[in-house]
Design brief:
The complex is a heterodimer of chains A (246) and B (471). By secondary structure, chain A is of the alpha/beta class. In chain A, 37% of the residues lie in helices and 20% in strands. In chain A, the strands form 3 sheets. Chain A has a 6-stranded parallel β-sheet, with helices on both faces. Chain A has a 4-stranded mixed β-sheet with strand order 8-5-6-9. A two-stranded antiparallel sheet of chain A has the order 10-11. Chain B has helices spanning 8-17, 19-42, 46-62, 64-77, 88-101, 113-118, 120-126, 136-144, 160-171, 179-196, 222-228, 249-260, 296-301, 316-320, 324-327, 338-349, 366-370, 377-390, 402-415, 418-431, 465-468; strands spanning 81-85, 106-109, 130-133, 199-202, 206-208, 213-218, 232-238, 242-243, 268-272, 286-292, 436-437, 440-441, 457-458. In chain B, strands 1-10-7-4-2-3 form a 6-stranded parallel β-sheet, sandwiched between helices. In chain B, strands 8-5-6-9 form a 4-stranded mixed β-sheet, sandwiched between helices. Chain B has a 3-stranded antiparallel β-sheet with strand order 11-12-13, with no helix packed on it. Classes of the chains: A alpha/beta (246), B alpha/beta (471).
Chain lengths: 246, 471
């Protein structure tokens, strides 16, 4: 159906005249906030994160466990790398993929996993060669990988959530297709609740930086569709690790 | 989907007589209902959150024309395409046409109640395209060729033995006794479908008007799979699913998920804004959003029914309802069962066809209490009963039989004056001699016979209270 006709029918159903101009933008919603107001809300959130980073990290540690993550709190990047090494060894992984998140740079996974014989590869498109061929290649690799490692863009203490945003170097499926996902969270990335997350996302939208997707990941893939019994690993990873640094 | 709402009396009797269904329904109370209650109790200011969620929905629905225009603009700006479908046939045609033009052979589907409403799978099959449901519950009922039994747990009426038998018959797998093994078998079967599919279809729990974003809530990851793996993604949902701002999602996600399963959040919440960008590593090349009316504008047009469009499809009212918990989801005869289904199904498919559904409620109010956006379901059920009896706003659906209408006219006369009470009481005391036995009436003659089918009435006392009272 033509969209004008469809919306006109909705308008008539609401008891408004079709020819009449659409109602004025509502002033009792978030949409009424000016860019300036959103910006200052976002700044207040950033200040709060700096002031309370330790508290939010501790809250996340607890809520992530509640959501089904296996949580490790590490003091340093090298401690985190060692922890990841032990996960790789425990599951006898042969193929490990990782995203282009900057938090992973400090882990020097290449060095940490050298000598394990594991095939370690970054899932980051190279702009200079054919993207289609690379995408096809990545797709095959991620289908067969044992572990996917990512950083996060944010984490949410309220819900035990890792937030992954669309950006260069971050595949949608490296955290989805392999049976094990490891998410690395740095101090200062942890937001107290979903509300702060969506305020920041609104700011990013207003700055034309929303991206094509966002994944909130809170524990393993699970289902209770047969007799209410919870089963993990139905389509996504059945085993998920959250590595907290700092 | 073919409506069987006329058959509620028969379908509900069958469900009541089915021991397996009765047994599986028992788990709803502990499985979902109690989990919802503890989740809402554990959420600070749940009541306030609920009021805010309701206010967001109310505001959006009251200005739906404005927000739909915004959705069209923003989804298009993000590189997607919006299609407005006035009914199921239009929506089906749009999806099937795209599939044909793109040479699609295999479609993977995340859970979508609106696509059930449309009977989309059937239309795809007719066009020679294979649709595969990937939510575990939906996969099971697709194999069984059944309809969803529950909004969020479509196959919850099946025992693991029944699922094992079904897999054995349809997939040739050996007998399995562990639920984990059944789920892992589904994972294996569906993995290759995800990899080879040409098109992914999902629902959408919310659409954010300002940003042109759709939000998908799943626990298994079927929504992520279906929206990430194939080169083409189509999201289909009802036009009422809009919220104004992405900042509204915090409130709405808490309300939806905590009411549905009692989790603080589901394993996955995915938001999608258009197709993949040039710099993205992966994702679909094409994104379409199909917004379906299919009768919803009728709900919008009646101010007394409008709030039914606030529904988040969490299923909490089903789990709370003493009627749903006995008759189950198939008795309601269409996609949406339970208290909200008793409103939506007749209103979308024909009020007089579904005339039994508004009566499938004791009006106890448990649904209203469970609803995260405080939809006054009992009020609307009463309103629908009124319309069926009197036909004020829906004259074409007036369906009370003449005998019943006359009976109630007389009843009103008898109870609204002392004269009426005296005359009718006297007559009834004489007439009841034909049917009363030992002070009880077990069987009434037509047109009153239905009232005595399942209950026994005490007979009227031989001397009325009025004449015994010595003030």
């Amino acid at each position: 159906m033509d969209s004008k006709e469809f919306i006109a029918n909705v308008r008539r159903s609401l008891g408004r005249e079709v020819g009449a101009p659409p109602p004025a933008p509502p002033d009792d919603t978030y949409l009424a906030l000016s860019n300036q107001q959103v910006e200052s809300k976002a700044q207040a959130i950033s200040r709060d994160l700096e002031a309370n980073a330790d508290e939010y990290m501790a809250l996340l540690e607890k809520s992530a466990e509640g959501a089904g993550w296996r949580v490790a709190r590490c003091k340093t990047a090298s401690e985190a790398a060692n922890h990841i090494l032990s996960i790789v060894r425990d599951m006898e992984a042969t193929s490990v993929l990782f995203s282009g998140h900057s938090a992973l740079d400090d882990l020097h996974l290449d060095a940490a996993l050298s000598g394990t014989g594991v095939q370690l590869e970054a899932m980051v498109l190279d702009d200079d060669s054919d993207k289609k061929a690379q995408r096809d290649d990545f797709r095959l690799k991620v289908i067969n990988a044992d572990i996917g490692i990512t950083g996060v863009d944010y984490a949410v203490a309220e819900t035990g959530t890792a937030v992954l945003l669309a950006q260069k170097g971050v595949s949608r499926v490296v955290s989805l297709l392999p049976p094990v996902h490891i998410a690395v969270v740095e101090k200062g990335q942890v937001l107290p609740s979903l509300d702060e997350l969506f305020t920041l996302r609104r700011k990013e939208f207003l700055n034309d930086n929303l991206g094509s997707y966002m994944n909130l990941i809170s524990g393993p893939s699970r289902s209770a569709d047969i007799e209410y019994q919870i089963v993990t690993g139905v389509h996504g990873p059945g085993e998920v690790h959250m590595v907290l640094i700092g | 989907m073919q409506s069987r709402i006329k058959q509620f009396p028969q379908l509900s009797s069958e469900a009541l007589a089915n021991d397996q269904i009765q047994k599986n329904l028992l788990g709803l109370y502990d499985g979902f209902h109690k989990a919802r209650i503890s989740a809402s109790e554990a959420t600070p200011n749940w009541d306030e959150l609920s009021d805010r969620g309701r206010a967001i929905k109310e505001h959006t629905i009251e200005n739906l024309d404005y927000y739909l225009e915004m959705v069209e603009r923003t989804v298009t700006a993000a590189g997607g395409k919006v299609f407005f479908a006035k009914d199921a046939a239009e929506a089906n045609k749009y999806v099937v046409d795209i599939a044909k033009v793109r040479g699609v052979k295999l479609v993977i589907k995340g859970k979508s109640m609106v696509s059930e409403e449309m009977g989309l799978n059937h239309e795809l099959e007719k066009a020679g395209i294979e649709p595969v449901e990937t939510d575990l519950g939906e996969y099971i009922i697709q194999l069984a060729d059944e309809t969803p039994f529950h909004i969020i747990a479509p196959a919850i009426h099946k025992s693991k033995e029944e699922v094992s038998d079904l897999f054995q018959e349809k997939l040739g797998t050996p007998r399995m006794t562990e639920i984990t093994d059944l789920a892992m078998e589904a994972r294996r079967q569906l993995r290759s479908k995800f990899i080879n599919a040409d098109m992914g279809i999902t629902g959408a729990n919310f659409i954010v008007a300002e940003t042109g974003t759709v939000a998908l809530v799943t626990n298994e990851g079927n929504g992520r799979m279906s929206s990430s793996m194939p080169k083409l993604h189509i999201a289909i949902t009802g036009m009422e699913k809009v919220v104004p701002s992405i900042e509204d999602l915090g409130i709405m996600l808490r309300l939806l998920i905590r009411s549905a399963t009692g989790q603080r959040i589901s394993s996955y919440v995915t938001t999608i804004t258009g197709p993949r960008k040039d710099d993205d590593e992966d994702g679909p090349e094409e994104f379409h959003l199909v917004l379906v009316d299919n009768g919803r504008s009728k709900l919008l047009a009646d101010p007394a029914m409008r709030e039914s469009l606030y529904c988040l499809r969490c299923g909490a009212c089903l789990n709370a309802c003493p009627v749903y918990r006995k008759v189950g989801g198939h008795a309601y005869g269409w996609v949406y069962p339970g208290p909200i289904g008793a409103i939506v199904s007749p209103m979308l498919t024909g009020l007089s066809d579904g005339k039994d559904l508004p009566y499938a409620s004791s009006l106890c109010g448990a649904c209203k209490e469970a609803c995260p956006v405080k939809i006054n379901i009992p009020r609307m059920l009463l309103y629908m009963r009124h319309q069926l009896a009197e036909g004020d706003n829906y004259p074409e659906h007036k369906s009370a039989p003449f005998g019943e209408a006359m009976t109630f006219k007389l009843w009103r006369f008898a109870l609204s004056s002392s004269m009426g009470l005296r005359v009718f009481g006297g007559m009834a005391r004489i007439l009841q001699k034909l049917v009363a036995k030992d002070g009880r009436i077990t069987k009434l003659p037509p047109p009153l016979s239905n009232w005595s089918k399942l209950r026994t009435f005490p007979a009227l006392a031989s001397k009325p209270f009025r004449s015994r009272w010595k003030g």
